[in-house]
Amino acid sequence: MSEQPTLAQRFFSLPGFGLLLALLIFACFPDVLLGRNSFYFRDYGVLGYPVVHFFRESMLAGQVPLWNPLSNCGVPFFAQWGTMCAYPLSAILLLPLPWWLSFFCFLHLWLAGIGMYLLARRWTANNYAAAFAGSAFVFNGVMFASFIWPNYFVALAWMPFVVLLTERAWREGGRWTLGAAIVSALQLGSGVPEIVLFTWLIVGVLWLLDFGEDAGSGARMFVRMIGVVALAAALMAVQLLPFFELLVHSQRDLDFATTKWSLPLWATANFVAPLLNCFESPQGQYFQYGQEFLSSVYLGVPVVMLALVGVFKFSTLRSWALLLLAIFAIVLALGEHTPVFPAIRKAIPLLAVARYPVKFLFIPAFVLPLLAALAIRALHVDPRGTSRTVAGFTLVMLAGLGALVWAAHENLLVDMSQWPPNFRQNATLSWKDAAVNTALRGGILVAVIAGIVFSPRATAAGLWGGVAALAFVALDARTHTPQQNPTLPAEEFRGSLWDEAVGPRPAFGHSRVFIAPQAEEFLLNVSSTNAARMWQAKRRALWSNLNLLEAAPKVNGSATLQIREQARFQKTLYGTNAPAGVLDFLGVAFVNSNRFEWTKRDGALPLITAGQRIVFADDATAQTMLFAAEFDPRSLVVLPLSAGATIAETNGAGISVLSSNITSQRIAFEVDAQQPGAVVIAQSYYPAWKASVDGQSVPLYRANGAFQSVLIPSGRHQVRVEYVDKTFRSGAAISALVLLACPLLWWILGRRNAERS
Q1: Cα distance between residue 183 and residue 206, in whole Å
Q2: Is 335 within 8 Å of 360 (Cβ atoms)?
Q3: What is the pLDDT of residues 500-545, one digit of tens each?
Q4: Would you tell me how many other CB atoms lie within 10 Å of the CB of residue 548?
Q5: Is 625 left (phi over 0), alpha (psi -120 to 50) or beta?
Q6: In this structure, what are the phi and psi dihedrals at residue 731, rounded to the nearest 5 degrees?
Q7: Which of 253, 360, 411, 521 is 20 to 30 A from 304, comparing alpha carbons?
């Protein structure tokens, strides 16, 4: 039976769907879009927002933020994944916060739906099926869980565009190759390597399927794919080259960390029954015990069911390959709970760098909406036959939801006796809520199915049925778990709480603050039913990245990639009772050892000290010497053994620091040395920092395990230590050249297409 045009088909053109999608997003979060409130929960408040704030303040001051001097005693910033410094649409973030960061997130959420719409429309040639896929990709628990990471929204927004345009690129070549490269580069700019890899895993599966069908064109298809990858990498070289340089020097090696937050076996039930066996946090959010990376893994009952119908009705190699890929990703998300992920990790040691197997759920969250679109396409081609199939699957799904509720009540899904008492009690107390919630999912399933069954009708009922189905998909995501994305009044993000509570803040180059280990542990785990009070307390405590909001230098921080030696030093520091000598060397003027209270301490040294006696030692010995009770940073500095071959003068010297001018990426000072000796800078050592004395380049040594030192000849000298990131400059040059060449390449590729035509 051929498909007939309907009102729903005509209404759900790209403009119609784009408008409806924007209205549905607004209906889900009106208080945030109107600027009254802002997100704050988990990483959004303590990681993402402060990073954006630092980026904005640096750019408005006329400086590209290559280095962050406020965290981890100094750490590369531009090179970090997730800072989005090279992402073009980050220009939005230069506008006043916090509203424009909220808009940035919603814009990319909308783009994600538009991209999925375009991809599904190409695959199904059906506007309404495409609209359902776009809505299902936007409105689900996994996508809403990503609100706490703005950069994840960027990666997810461009994911369907990469698949769509790359598929056209290897099939048709020409300008599609350049278009695919541009959207791939934009996704790279998000700084989320896992989602980029998942995207290209999906692309790879589709490419292999096409290659199997047309092996004769395999070489041409392969060359086009390589062209897309090469062009994308060149366009984003400004971000990639500094990132890889930092990765080489970072703590993220094959022994970095064990697997964390795998999806529990029983938690697969939460794909359709979101609250079963979950525990409730003090502020009302629900989490899976053993997996707290994603606040929800709910994929949507209607979407899961329709995806199965889609594979059943369109039993093609492509549909089965995508379904198997989604299942395989779910198995990998289970991490150590099955032998599959450990075996693959052993075969591919590089996977050890990624800590959270649950991230593989982004693959089924992408694939299932596409398979569901196939089911709706079948409904529009054969309404009567497909309706019977959908009705049968709906009854089975409803029975399955009932069986899950019963199994959870009988404790058949999970042995909660192994859970701590407070988690077990919360899960037990919330069982009735979980049952009611699951029943509501069943009701929404019936409403969605009723709407899409009406959608093929060429009447107003078909149009409104189709609109209602998409509205219920949005309602399903918004209500499937309480308080998934809570908000606070926007005023909570403004002003300086440190100045109000403590007094004048520490300034970079003069002193730092130090959160003691016991306070750090408390701040990591503390919670309260009063969200505003907890937010204010953590802001005053400068926890995680919140010191960036106060421009307050801190010993530790929350950089994703730390410099290896600095991370080693920090691990030792937080594994001991920090001796006074180390804190003096770090310039610690305030200590938080009592949860939220700061105590002023004396003895903090300035960033630059001079004249210490030089001792050479390996890293292990240097750590031992540094953390000994008798260590005095005023009289002793430890340099690597390798430096002994070039340094002759090791005795203490009379060196005076006469003046200094310290900024985030340049330290200039004048010294007067009675004899040759060392100047020590209590800032993290990183190869991009270069030293000169009186304009002549000199070595910059790694001092006290993780910091900086310059050797000064006798006399009066001007010393400069500057951050000179050659990988950034090289990457910027490559990206600029390729970007400038894009218009010419677009013209050449278009002309070739015209000649072939």
Answers
A1: 18
A2: no
A3: 767 777 888 889 999 999 888 888 888 888 889 999 989 999 999 9
A4: 26
A5: alpha
A6: -65, -40
A7: 411
- DSSP category for residue 674: S
| Cα end-to-end span (Å), the chain | 34
Of 110-124, 216-230, 436-450, 470-484, which range is least confident? 216-230
Alpha-carbon distance of 632 to 586, in angstroms, equals 12
Instruction: Give the H/E segment covering residue 512.
Output: strand 512-515
Show the tokens assigned to 144: 């809403």
Residue found under tokens 């649409």:
89
Contact 596, 541 (CB under 8 A): yes
Q: Are 404 and 438 a contacting pair, CB within 8 Å?
A: yes
Spell out a b/e string for 30-43, using b for 16 or more CB atoms within 10 Å of the CB, else e: eebbeeebbbbbbb
User: Residue 116: which region, alpha, beta or left (left: phi > 0; alpha: psi -120 to 50)?
Assistant: alpha
Residue 591: beta bridge partners?
Answer: 514, 599
Stated as kind and residue range, the H or E segment containing 381 is: helix 362-381
**Rounded (10°) angle between helices 127-138 and 460-479:** 10
Is the distance from CB of 174 to CB of 750 less than 8 angstroms? Answer: yes
Beta-bridged to residue 613, according to DSSP, are: 636
Per DSSP, the three-state class of 151 is helix
Distance CA 76, CA 85 (A): 12
**Whole-number Å distance between alpha carbons of 418 and 427:** 13
β-strand partners of 67:
76
Letter for the amino acid at 298?
A: Y
H/E element, 657? strand 655-662
* DSSP-derived 3-state class of residue 599: strand
